Amino acid sequence: MKPLTFLPSLFTLLFILVSLHLSPSWAASDSVYDTFLQCLTRRSQPSDHISDIIYSPANSSFANVLTSYLRNRRFNSSSTPKPLVIVTPKQESHVQAAILCSKDLGVHLKIRSGGHDYEGMSYVSDDAFFILDMFNLRSIDVDIQKETAWVQAGATLGELYYGIWKKSKVHGFPAGVCTVLGIGGHLSGGGYGNMLRKYGLSADNVLDARIMDVQGRILDRKAMGEDLFWAILGGGGASFGVILAYQIKLVPVPEKVTVFRVERTLDQNATDLVYKWQSVAPSTDSGLFMRLSLLPTSSQTQKGQLTIGTSLVALYLGNSDQLLAITDKEFPEIGLRKENCTEISWIESVLWWIGFDNGTFPAPETLLSRDYPAIFFKRKSDYVRTPIAKANLEWLWKKMIEVEKVGISLNPYGGRMSEIPASATPFPHRAGNLFKIQYFIDWKEEDPEAGKKYLAQISRLYSYMTPFVSKNPRSAFLNYRDLDIGATTNGNNSYEEGRVYGVKYFNDNFERLVKVKTAVDPNNFFRNEQSIPTLPK
Q1: CA triple 293-443-128, angle to 5 deg
Q2: Pairwise CA distance, residues 198 & 428, whole Å
Q3: How many helices (H) and strands (E) does the chain have?
Q4: What is the pTM of this model?
Q5: Are 441 and 407 in contact (CB under 8 A)?
Q6: CA distance to 197, 238, 431, 458, per residue, from 422 (Å)
Q7: Residue 289: is its pLDDT beyond 60?
Q8: Looking at residue 6, what is its pLDDT?
Q9: Fewer CB atoms inside 10 Å of the end CB: C or N, the chain?
Q10: Is 60 exceeded by the pLDDT of residue 4?
């Protein structure tokens, strides 16, 4: 059989046709599918039923498979580039075959575990591309005696929390409050949740990993070496290989934890609450996490006017009496009382944080659901190292009301986060950072012009915040992916382009990540619009 040297150009042609909304013949589409199927079959062991795991646009299930883990509707328009093939591996050998076949055919491979990349980088590309969709690789093996668990990349956080709860009512794991996040992307980007002040990031609690490298080899921590292991604990796994699984360290949680919510508006002394929060939330007991969200809302006292609503949502790893002893002393501004507190199990607190907060909780099996409605949205991030003065907060309220729709979520650091050195993992935002900001805006209108308007709004508020956030660099959180801060075309200037966003995400850790990338993937096979570049040749 002659080498299929013509295939990359064929794939590129098909990709262009799809992008232009032309209708390539099914024969051409079948050619892409058949060629990839032949390669996948040849490289897979065992090779039976391989056709069951790959989907081309000609397949009636293609659209459903593509959109099932597509979370941002900004990347689901008719003009959004679509993959030529989606591969949904059911065993690790399928992953190996997908990597090697993508290399053989010269087609870009995108890796998706949960589909929550804020900029759609796991399922969109301007190049001809395949998607390697990991959702079938979702096994979870919890060992309570050793207080560890092996979790495959395609599992969700909800499935992990449920798996832990089935084995123990006094163990948990410090990861996100959104339970449909995929393990592969969440942990490799650092990952955090409402126990980060007590136990650090998700990545701070990883013991081992399994990764498939560019040569199709499965490497555990010992085989990959400490440099690559370090890189996939916050540097983004998709720059280095395909994350197959992580071994995590479980953490102790009390039989009962306490949650509460406090809401205020500007005419209810919200400014005083926010100002005081900046000093209390990052310095209080490490078992107390208080997220503060700020959003323009209709005034209840001035008809037709907007005000700023604040919502403080908290988890305390203890009972309400212990909590009140802390808040009465350190944060009386919130006026917390025992009747405002709810004592529940840790697994119930997971459900509470995803919206089951009316006093009744569904069965923990609810966490196994992967249903998550796709919406139009944009996110951005910042870090604050110095408290914002009260006069500046009042100025900020005016700007938020002027912008109208953009919200801000403040996540406190301190505690364990301040104890871990900035170089311990690629995630550098440790001691000295009071809190992280997430800017958020959601919308329902499908009109692209409406989308442009909302994107401009969030950019305006981000600009207004410049004096109050970190500088040189203005830092950002990798898992709050934001193409506004820089992107690469993965061409000859990839290092210079990558450094623009790389130092914002990783600060002084960027150069070490580049060295690791150059060593393990020198030809930059694993790449995306914000991947780690290789050193200039």
Answers
A1: 110
A2: 18
A3: 17, 18
A4: 0.93
A5: yes
A6: 15, 22, 8, 29
A7: yes
A8: 35
A9: N
A10: no
Helix (H) or strand (E) holding 31, with range, is helix 26-43
Q: What does the DSSP 8-state code read for residue 222?
A: H
Write the CA distances from 506 to 72, 123, 463, 482, integer angstroms: 25, 24, 21, 14
In single-letter form, the type of residue at position 60 comes to: S
Length of the chain: 537
- pLDDT tens digits, one per residue of 234-262: 999 999 999 999 999 999 999 999 999 99
304: left (phi over 0), alpha (psi -120 to 50) or beta: left
3-class SS letters over 311-342: EEEEEECCCHHHHHHHHHHHCHHHCCCHHHCE
Residues with active-site annotation: 480
The CA distance from 65 to 73, in Å, is 15
Look at residue 289 and give its three-state secondary structure: strand
- The closest of 185, 58, 75 to 132, measured between CA atoms, is 185
- Per-residue pLDDT of 175-184, as tens digits, reads 999 999 999 9
Q: How far is CA 313 from CA 52, 281, 310, 329, in A?
A: 45, 12, 10, 19
- Which residues are registered as beta bridge partners of 301? none
